[in-house]
Design a protein that fits this description.
About 75% of the residues lie in helices and about 0% in strands. The chain has eight helices and no strands.
């Protein structure tokens, strides 16, 4: 297993936890106002998750390395909170775009993201950046993809939306769609774990 691979695999696994899977509920409400509140709720949960993951990977690195049994990946663990944040943010805006049938924007952002992830490592290879270049290209690819999808979200902004923002509204939608973190998230977590975690198990031997 290459040193940078655990960063990508942990990103896929932790991104399932990062939003509680509330982003899947964005396409359900009939009212646009409620859908945008779900987006805000998802982003809020994501920010909190980012802070928690940052704390864990900063102060629990030794314990994580002990579980993974591969000290080579130590420096790359610090990138995991950032990659999880960008990965999950992309999903949030992607489902919002799907709600508005902006399929072309989703496909273009995916193409731009894939192109960035391919071109940047080739450009950085001349500087012998190695695993660092691959991780940076992964981060940059999601930045470019998120920027395009965020433009769709801004395009459909409601009048005085920021002024009417209230925490109790987010609390309401969190309760209204609580089945997503309770039912959908565990199943997605098991599926993702079955795909990503065996690599860590076998690398320990």
């Amino acid at each position: 297993m290459l040193p940078h691979e655990p960063t990508i695999r942990l990103t896929a696994f932790l991104s399932v936890l990062a939003t509680g899977r509330y982003e899947l509920a964005v396409i359900l409400p009939k009212k646009e106002e409620r859908a945008r509140k779900i987006v805000r709720l998802s982003v809020l949960i994501l920010v909190i998750s980012f802070l928690v993951f940052t704390f864990v990977f900063l102060f629990g690195q030794k314990e994580i390395l002990y579980l993974i049994k591969d000290k080579r990946i130590g420096p790359w663990l610090y990138f995991v909170p950032v990659t999880v944040f960008l990965f999950a943010l992309f999903d949030i805006y992607k489902y919002y775009c799907i709600r508005h049938r902006a399929y072309r924007a989703v496909s273009k952002s995916a193409i731009i993201k894939s192109g960035t992830a391919t071109v940047v490592p080739l450009a950085l290879r001349f500087g012998h950046s190695g695993a660092l270049g691959l991780i940076l290209s992964y981060i940059l690819s999601f930045c470019t993809g998120n920027f395009r999808l965020f433009k769709i979200f801004r395009k459909h902004a409601l009048p005085d939306e920021n002024r009417s923002y209230r925490f109790r509204d987010l609390k309401y939608v969190a309760g209204r769609y609580k089945k997503f973190p309770k039912l959908t998230m565990p199943s997605h977590l098991v599926d993702t774990a079955s795909d990503q975690l065996p690599v860590f198990v076998f690398s320990a031997f």
